[in-house]
Design a protein that fits this description.
The structure holds two protein chains of two kinds. Chain A is mainly beta. Chain A has no helices and twelve strands. In chain A, the strands form three sheets. In chain A, strands 2, 5, 6, 10, 11 and 12 form a six-stranded mixed beta sheet that branches. Chain A has a four-stranded antiparallel beta sheet with strand order 3-9-8-7, with no helix packed on it. Chain A has a two-stranded antiparallel sheet with strand order 1-4. Chain A is globular. Chain B has no helices and eleven strands. In chain B, strand 9 and strand 10 form a beta hairpin. The N and C termini of chain B lie far apart (36 Å). Classes of the chains: A mainly beta, B mainly beta. Chains A and B meet through strand 5 and strand 6 of A and strand 4, strand 5, strand 9 and strand 10 of B.
Chain lengths: 117, 115
């Protein structure tokens, strides 16, 4: 079955530091990959996505590149801010797989990011 | 994207009781999904609710515990039955938007605490 593995948290960084949150996956077919973010007390929001190999998703200064050869989708940001403190979830969907994918999303366990001023 | 609302936003319930959570979407969708997020954990898919048919449950989830209704293309309910403290979680509904695509959008969640 499908699975997503992401680095455990919490990850604590100083403001303006470089951020990497690792995510690797296992899936049948060719999944679409997502990063979702959950700010304190709020719901789950889509941060960025990539639907095929070598695609780069980007939003709010965050980037992630779909690497099929390493089955990875690492999240990066060059200079984090205190407002980036949140829980980040890597997820995949193989819904569009012509061989018959599942309809729901498979999530990683989430990485709690804490940015200190 | 889609605008999704849930009611209630939070509740505190006694064990043995049941709670029905409502999910409303601002557009017509065939499939709606219900997820559970236990404290400090990731999201787990409970079931998929299609309008006009029985919900499809994931392994570990049963209809008697989590009955789902889907009366029309914009609305669904999830009931958490005979609750125990282990049911304390955030319950979220989601949809694909636009329908047929691969991106899911989530409601704000219902925070449930069972005493």
């Amino acid at each position: 079955g499908n699975s997503v593995t992401q680095m455990e948290g919490p990850v604590t960084l100083s403001e303006e530091a470089f951020l990497t949150i690792n995510c690797t996956y296992t899936a049948t077919g060719y999944p679409s990959l997502f990063w979702y973010v959950q700010y304190p007390g709020e719901g789950l929001q889509l941060l960025l996505k990539a639907t095929k190999a070598d695609d780069k998703g980007s939003n709010k200064g965050f980037e992630a590149t779909y690497r099929k050869e390493t089955t990875s989708f690492h999240l990066e940001k060059g200079s984090v801010q205190v407002s980036d403190s949140a829980v980040y979830f890597c997820a995949l969907s193989d819904r569009m797989y012509s061989g018959g994918g599942a309809d729901g999303l498979t999530f990683g366990k989430g990485t709690h990011l804490i940015i200190q001023p | 994207s889609a605008v999704i609302s849930q009611k209630p936003s939070r509740d505190i319930c006694q064990r043995g009781t049941s709670l029905t959570i409502q999910c409303q979407v601002d557009s017509q969708v065939t499939m709606m999904f219900w997820y559970r997020q236990q404290p400090g954990q990731s999201l787990t898919l409970i079931a998929t609710a299609n309008q006009g048919s029985e919900a499809t449950y994931e392994s570990g989830f049963v209809i008697d515990k989590f009955p789902i209704s889907r009366p029309n293309l914009t609305f669904s309910t999830l009931t958490v039955s005979n609750m125990s403290p282990e049911d304390s979680s955030i319950y979220l509904c989601s949809v694909y938007a636009p329908p047929g695509q691969e991106t899911q959008y989530f409601g704000p969640g219902t925070r449930l605490l069972v005493l």
